[in-house]
User: What shape does this take?
Amino acid sequence: MECPVTHTQESFKSFMQDVLRKYEILRGLTTQSTNFWDVVVLTACNADQEEAFNLQLERKVLHGALPASRYLVVPDEVPVKGCKIGAGGSTFLVIKKLKECFPAEELAKKRVLLIHAGGWSQRLPSASVLGKLFMPLPIGGSCGYDMLDIKLALYLPFLPLMPPGIFLTASDDIELFDINTVKLLASSFPIPSGFVALGHPSTIEIGRTHGVFACELAPNLSEAAFLTCSRVLQKPTVDEMRTAGAIRREGLNSAVITDSAYWFDMAIVEKLYEFYMLHGLPEVEVDCYGDFMQPLGSSPSMDYIERTKNNPLKRVRELLFEKLAGSSFNVLFLPGKLRRQLGQLNLLIGR
Assistant: This one.
């Protein structure tokens, strides 16, 4: 369970209703709105899933159930037989695809939503054919909503704050937060660069299985803040969190700031593309969270690189550290933010 916050269930309900109302207006428009993503990219685990995703997108467009945008589906490639490339490898392929689809000067102006959706949904067999992203949900208008609709709607409040770049998210989680928090931040929000990650309060136990940010002390854990970060920890032990200064409070109300979605600018897109062009698609499973984010912060540690016995992966991590270390990195802390994954829908409905 997430740690207690001061925001009420009513504020979450109000947020969802407001966001979905705005999304419903955009849904089915035949001309693209500046209030929506310029490009939406879905990843798929192979060519068969790519075809299935494209068929679903075509069906939704036919029924006026998608906002106007450029939709792309990018399948994983297998550099060697039996190799999984991970969401990090998929991200390299997405950037390659974007480079192929848009001239450099045009791509530099795009706000891209990247939804990592490849996988077999083994923990949700009912979603194994079309994936979690196209799971129908018991909400929406006459056409009904699926997880894709929710993902397209949820991050709309960040668009006014977001310069061109890629906003990266998973396909199987739903984040709730108070939209007014973001509106209040907009007036004083610095122009972001490098990486900006969404952070939310969680228990230490949750932190042990997620990414954890060691941030500067927030004035108040019930207030939104734009924080600098010294280190990013991935599935850390309690001692590692404490040593890094990631535990915000001690005792019964201890809390950490954990990860979910994140954004990176076009300068980072270029760095990742340079990596891909120089080294090719890694023949190991690369994590777009642990392997892209642990080099970040004002005082990153290279300890995580040595934790794997996989020498090719170790080398990829070393090269990514060299490429990404020193990049600007901040955390947009949203105190009322709750993250639920599919399989936890009973908890989400309870909210």
About this structure: The two ends are 12 Å apart (CA to CA).
